[in-house]
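Two records follow; treat each independently.
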Amino acid sequence: MARRGDVVLIAVSGGADSVALLHALHRLRARLGLKLAVAHLHHGIRGRAADADAVFVRRLARRLGVPMVAERVNVPQQAKTSGVSLEMAARAARYDFFVRAVRQCRATAVAVAHTADDQAETVLLRLARGAGPQGLGGMEPVSHRDGLTIIRPLLNIHRTELVAFLKNNRLHWREDASNHDQHFLRNRVRYEILPLLERRLNPQICTALLRTAEVLREENAVFDKLAETALNRCGTSARKFSVLPLALRRRALRLWLIGAGLDAEWLDFDAIAAVQTLAASQRGTKSVALGGGWKVIRRYDQLALEKSSIASAALWHLVIQPHRGIVKEKPTTPGRLPARATISAAAVGSAPLVVRVAQAGDRMMPLGMNGTKKLQDIFTNAKVPREQRGRIPVVECCGEIIWLPGYRIARGWEVPTARSRSLLLTLRTV
């Protein structure tokens, strides 16, 4: 992961995992011949708790004699401006920060504290979303993004081992209350789904998921080589793509889209299927929207990826009013405005609400239905034209879609009784 003399930038949030990573690398630095630096990003989300995290990390870095780079960004505002989810905006902000921090420290790699538990959760989440072999391979021990080398030294170590290491050495860390908030899908997997699978299906479910991910990563490396060869042969010719074997065609198209600038998170099964259909089309100029403002255009035999002009959240106005009880409106068409809904004030608490555009791969848990539903399926059932889907607003809280205007709110965010405190949301076009 690193060579003697390298400068490794350690991403430290203040939580147990990243603090354990910092202490471990600090103890090993002389043996490994590494120079260390700490990176801490304040996301502007958790108020005073996040301020305290920043102070804790700064004091820890000073005590260990490790230089630190810190920044503060307003992730909710960035999510609103760019029309993406809070989670995606936070991730983009982190990587942008890493680029600047690496340049400032002249670092060779960024070390992040993903654990074996994070890997198992990631594989299970991607399986539930219908990911292919690339997604089910999980996180790579060493990966590259935006010119950065990302290393994950703890990927084979479980969270309980890290906490035991900290306790045995009387080392302190910060607890993030949001890590136990089960409005976040990953936390539900961590505290509900995986324990249930351990009890009822396989006591070694984490080990099984990790083994599966490792096997798929090794096989993906082989298949990616084949796909790269096919991609070099096809170029951007729709006709050449369309005659490849199906599995190779999917992988080659995915590599082409990622190489052209599209985020891999947007490339679910439906997105790749839509591009395949476009490539097989026999007509002149056609296009397909992929979400996030991207579209693939076929001009006769040539495919091109372009950033389309989409409506941003700045074109919408969300009014939030304290209320009591429930306001019911008959569902019309997803995205039809103005629209009103009431949600539980207790469920929201002090968390920010974000308005953004719907994206490929988005899911929600519609009130009155079982399980989750893909927004693409909801749009299809409602006969929403594909070219309009990338302009439909959704309201998000804690990284979860809580309201699809014109359709319904999400389960878990409903107002319990007619006398419960609620928030009346009104969304309209500016």
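The next record belongs to a different protein.
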Amino acid sequence: MRQSGHVLDWETKPLPFKVYPALEQIRLPTALPALSADTFAALTPADPSAAAAPLDLERLAALLFFSAGVTRVKTYPGGGQIHFRAAASTGALYQTEAYVIAGAVEGLEPGVYHFSPGDFSLRRLRAGDFRGAVALAAADDALAAQPAILVLSAIYWRNTWKYQARGYRHLFWDSGTLLGQLLAVARALDVPARLVTGFVDAQLNGLLGLDAEKEGALVAVPLGAPGPVAAASPVIVTLTPEVIPLSPREVDYPLLRDAYDNSSLDSEAEVADWGQVLNYDIPAAPARSNVAIQDLTPPAREAGRALGETIERRGSTRAFSGEAIGAGALSSALYHATRGFPADVPAGLVDLYVNVHAVTGIEPGAYAYDRDAHALARLRAGDVREASAFLCLEQALGGTSSATVFFLADLAAVLARWGNRGYRLVNLEAGLIGGRLYLGAYGQRFGASGLTFYDRAVVEFFSPHAVGKDAIFVTALGRSVRSAPPSGERVAWRGGAGGRRS
């Protein structure tokens, strides 16, 4: 890392927004439904028998705003601005883009749209109902009957500008974090939502008109209760809309593009075959002997903050105070973050390891979290703050937190079973759980921050328990250093709450 020689070229820092200069702006409504449900209630799996709310333009706008919208703008002397978003992103680079394939959304004509968070608008790329095309690409007929499909993509350069080819994993951390929030908002609005990770990448990229050398689709999210099946899609002609360049020049990282291509699915038949593999059960992790088990306190049913307020308060903690949080607070955050998610992929591909620094009622040390038993298995006792900080790329945040959660996975087993696309799955799940930990922390009035790490050192630290696994992601939890409220213009929306991203 120290010998890489990579420095940030501020002259080529990418624009924060994708801009289609020739497409008409369609303003989204700002009278958004209030997210009054408690944060933990929004993280609780939905009752399949519960009645679903209709997907109208107001609910769609709320889903977009509270997951991918701009929630605060800070202006610096000289006119420079930072646009903070609802969901966290590595380096505040926000490479995740959102597209809507609408077919039966009340108040919105059928079409393929790009969501522009900068002016809170949609821009139509194609007119007509293309839900059937997505259903074909995903080998999932049910998609053609749901009112809309949200597709998340990533613009590579916006992240590789800082993180180079390592940004490949960041694409899925950040889209996963956004999805953690999106699913919670959908739950609060009674809008059914699920994740679709298997699709013909080239078909979806072509439908959205993406330059495959620079941007790729990552995941699709069908929204709303099923209705009449869409008619056959219109003919999909090649789409090459004008897009303003992000930078005067860009640096290409072929390793990232190769990783995307080598994990792509090439045909509907391949998607169907891959989906059949996903239906198999995940083997249970082998029991680990000679570890002390500590049962966690029962998780709280309520966080104490409504989801809208939590998103308003959510940020990324810049400095932890080192103060303790309660055992119940850690228990509740871990529990509600790991209850699975509706998807075409199985949950449970990542394992959580927790370095406890200052949690009332839990001795400091390194632990493995058993999500089924909701218990911690102690791997080593004593103060691990210094080790945690080192593991987190020598960042103090990793050790000054109350607890730092490390995500690991048996990557060899995942790749053997689900192919190269399995690497996407483990990073996406880690990001999603990390996003829920953010909500669980801020819902209980303490902070969180996502961190990167020394891969091999993390595995060695948690071994022998972690032998054979790979490090995937890190989220630190704790109380923030008290400081003056951040300055900046809060974006206010009637009926809802804004958010904060640092």
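Discussion point: The domain at 10-269 is CATH 3.40.109.10 (NADH Oxidase). How would you locate this feature using only the token line?
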